[in-house]
Predict the 3D structure of the following.
Amino acid sequence: MTYALVQVSVALMNDVTGRHWGYELSKQSGVRSGVMYPILQRMLDEGWLTDGWEDQEQVGRAKRPPRRYYKVTDAGRAALGAVLVQARRDARFRPILAPQAAGWSI
Amino acid sequence: MTGMIAQLLAWPTLSIALLVFGFAPGVVLRLIVLFYPRGHLRRRELLGELYAVPRIERPFWVVEQLEIALFEGLRDRARAWLLRRKRTEIDEQGSLRLRISVLGVSSLSIEIGRPGGGRDGAAGRGGAGLEGGISNPAASEELSRE
């Protein structure tokens, strides 16, 4: 388990039902995109996340290409929860986990 | 006079600022995504994300994407190339089988797609070896000529 994985898991679990966008997720988690995208890809491969593309209507108004979003699946919720439970036992991750710990619904 | 100097200095500065924060990130990112194989989702994703990044951060964000594109993109390209090469080999072996059957050879079988049964190893390692005898001597000669 890496620091980046825990940080991304925290960011995803902070809004477990919402859509997550690459750049925003990178900002929330504090993980550089060079590290975050491979983590997201692994999560997609594991079935923890699903992905999709922004609605064409929204994009048309903003005059920009559609963005890809990520959503946590039910399996992902359980798996990410397990990651965070495991991380909580590890002293290395306490600084990341302490402030948000109360807000998660695993 | 000083005002004019200041103006001269200001124009290049403004042009560079426009280039670095306005024009260049999009162009450079479009070049960077070419590292990914055609149809790779990251190509579209990164171009979409660019406009979500604040203008001031864009140049740095784009350079960061170069790092990941070099590793992820080139790796996926290499994989796609290997897959294409394997497929071509299988096609070549398939066409060999077709040619043999046209010559009217019976009791002949060729293994296709066996791991390690490449172009060079076909005869030596038995990757695409012949099993059984060739009943038609004329066909045998034709094959050995090829």
About this structure: Residues 1-81 of chain B form one domain. Chain B is about 70% helix and 5% strand. Residues 116-137 of chain B have pLDDT under 50 and may be disordered. The helical segments of chain B are 2-32, 41-50, 58-102, 121-124, 137-145.
